[in-house]
From TrEMBL:
Keyword Repeat set for record: yes
Species this protein is from: Anhinga rufa
Domain EF-hand: 1-19, 20-55, 63-98
Gene3D superfamilies found in the cross-reference section: EF-hand
Any GO BP: visual perception
GO cellular component terms given for this protein: cone photoreceptor outer segment; photoreceptor inner segment
Any one GO molecular function term: calcium sensitive guanylate cyclase activator activity
Family annotation (InterPro entries): EF-hand-dom_pair, EF_Hand_1_Ca_BS, EF_hand_dom, Recoverin
Record protein name field: Guanylyl cyclase-activating protein 1
Gene transcribed to yield this protein: Guca1a_2
Entry-linked SMART domains: EFh
Key words, A-Z: Calcium, Lipoprotein, Metal-binding, Myristate, Repeat, Sensory transduction, Vision
Length: 133
C-alpha cells in the first residue's frame, strides 16, 4: 500500500540481518523496484542506492552512479536498461563483488546496536580513545 507498518519493518529487519542470500536478494529487488512494475531501471536503482547511503554509513569508494553503471553493465543480459527479477537474482549471485557491496550497503548491524543502546553509539569510547592517540 506504499506504507510500512511496524510488523513489516520488523520482518524486513529480521530478513536483512538473518535471511538466506536468496531471500535477501528478493527483498532487495522489491526495495529497488520502486514503481512495482517487476523491473528495476537505472533511475530506480540509483535513487535507492543514494538514499541508502544517506541513511546508512557506507564507506564505498565507488559513487552511487558508478555502482549503478557497474550493476547494469554486469547483469543487464538483454541490454534493455531494466533488470528483471531473474536477471537480478542470477547476476548478483554469480558476482561476488556485487553481492558483497549490496550486502554491505544494507548492513543494519550498527542501527540495531544503537537501538539496543538507547541511541548511544556503543563504539564511542573506542572512537574517542583512537582519536586521542
Amino acid at each position: 500500500d506504499g506504507y510500512i507498518d511496524f510488523m513489516e519493518y520488523v520482518a524486513a529487519l529480521s530478513l536483512v540481518l538473518k535471511g538466506k542470500v536468496d531471500q535477501k536478494l528478493r527483498w532487495y529487488f522489491k526495495l529497488y523496484d520502486v514503481d512495482g512494475n517487476g523491473c528495476i531501471d537505472r533511475g530506480e536503482l540509483l535513487n535507492i542506492i543514494k538514499a541508502i547511503r544517506a541513511i546508512n554509513r557506507c564507506n564505498e569508494t565507488m559513487t552511487a552512479e558508478e555502482f549503478t553503471d557497474m550493476v547494469f553493465d554486469k547483469i543487464d543480459i538483454n541490454g534493455d536498461g531494466e533488470l528483471s527479477l531473474e536477471e537480478f537474482m542470477e547476476g548478483v549471485q554469480k558476482d561476488e563483488v556485487l553481492l558483497e557491496i549490496l550486502t554491505r550497503s544494507l548492513d543494519l548491524t550498527h542501527i540495531v546496536q544503537l537501538i539496543q543502546n538507547d541511541g548511544k553509539n556503543p563504539h564511542e569510547p573506542e572512537q574517542a580513545a583512537e582519536a586521542a592517540q
